[in-house]
User: Which sequence fits this backbone?
């Protein structure tokens, strides 16, 4: 266990970032395949096409999803088994948008097939998987981008520079949060259309089909880490990136299912992460829309930065009611820039903006918090790895 921990911490060093110089030209198009064409997979397919790449293959275990994806890419060849897609010599790269429990096997198989990979976050389903995935990528010659698009957002980079320049002073507490009023009981009614249930399960526990497990796979331990790792990966990455920290030393966490009846993962939770010189509180509530969406508040002894979907604002200390921000900027997070970076790196063979090391670092804390929540006590990275 201790050797695994040392390996994880050693490999979690942030890789260099390269801002994209240009997209592919019309005569030099990347040909890609999409593995898993649910809502996110179809969205990414549209974005990749918009950025000049060509979809030549689509794969899904659910027939209706595949049919919907074909409407956007009518000339793409379709598959139910992703390994057959990987055998397609016309495919230069794959987009992996599958449930979390498939991320590692699909990535490893794609690397073995010589494909570059754009993989949705979170990187892994466990700390141990993160280590294996990093090792596999570094043994290969493939470009792997993880879909944490804030890493390619120019305005986010500007906010990071302000922190680096000392505008906030010493950051002592960071408060990432996510509020959406979307929680409701899971739908377990029959699925329309054909689903290859056993292919969906893969290495997960064998059981009779439960439609809600397919529809909302993110809320079951067998397939994912819940919103703790899904949304937490995005926000904890920014927290650690801005404060020059790696994975936290420890975590405590409490959560419960408030309205999402049938789910195993909570729709309300709060985690506290311990770092060498700061604390981080990561909270999520899917039953309330106050301050709707995501935000991260950095509290320093010289200033406060609030980063959210609209942009970022910085307030000087000592804060006063109705104070005007000393810095303010719109900060869109365009997924197109992240895709451009991946396509550019396929040509240059440089590391992309979000390497597997960065992604593993980002999800380490949320993995730790899930372990702490299950155990009902504070858990350290040393004992969990």
Assistant:
């Amino acid at each position: 266990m201790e050797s695994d921990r040392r390996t994880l911490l050693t490999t979690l060093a942030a890789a260099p970032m390269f801002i994209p110089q240009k997209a592919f030209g019309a005569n030099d198009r990347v040909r890609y395949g999409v593995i898993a064409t649910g809502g996110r997979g179809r969205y990414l397919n549209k974005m990749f096409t918009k950025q000049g790449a060509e979809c030549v293959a689509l794969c899904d275990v659910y027939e209706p999803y595949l049919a919907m994806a074909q409407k956007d890419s009518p000339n793409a060849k379709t598959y139910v088994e992703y390994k057959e897609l990987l055998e397609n010599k016309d495919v230069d790269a794959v987009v992996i948008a599958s449930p979390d429990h498939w991320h590692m096997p699909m990535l490893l198989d794609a690397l073995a097939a010589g494909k570059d990979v754009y993989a949705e976050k979170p990187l892994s389903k466990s700390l141990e998987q993160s280590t294996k995935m990093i090792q596999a990528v570094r043994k290969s010659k493939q470009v792997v981008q993880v879909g944490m698009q804030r890493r390619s957002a120019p305005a986010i980079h500007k906010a990071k520079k302000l922190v680096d320049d000392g505008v906030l002073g010493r950051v002592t507490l960071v408060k990432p949060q996510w509020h959406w009023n979307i929680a409701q009981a899971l739908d377990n009614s029959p699925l329309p259309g054909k689903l290859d249930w056993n292919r969906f399960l893969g290495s997960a526990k064998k059981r009779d089909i439960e439609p809600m497990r397919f529809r909302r796979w993110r809320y079951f331990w067998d397939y994912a880490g819940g919103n703790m790792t899904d949304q937490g990966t995005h926000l904890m990455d920014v927290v650690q990136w801005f404060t020059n920290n790696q994975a936290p030393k420890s975590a405590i966490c409490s959560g419960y299912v408030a309205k999402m009846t049938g789910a195993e993962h909570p729709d309300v939770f709060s985690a506290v992460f311990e770092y060498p010189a700061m604390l981080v509180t990561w909270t999520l509530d899917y039953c309330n829309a106050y301050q709707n969406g995501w935000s991260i508040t950095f509290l320093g002894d010289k200033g406060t930065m609030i980063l959210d979907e609209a942009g970022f604002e910085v307030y000087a200390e000592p804060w006063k009611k109705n104070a005007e921000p000393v810095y303010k900027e719109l900060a869109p997070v365009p997924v197109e820039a992240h895709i451009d970076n991946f396509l550019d790196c396929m040509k240059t063979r440089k590391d992309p903006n979000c390497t597997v090391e960065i992604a593993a670092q980002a999800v380490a804390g949320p993995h730790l918090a899930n372990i702490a929540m299950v155990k009902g006590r504070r858990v350290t990275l040393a004992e969990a790895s």
User: Anything to note?
Assistant: The chain has 13 helices and 15 strands. The chain has a mean pLDDT of 93. The chain has two domains: 2-151+336-355, 154-333+367-384.
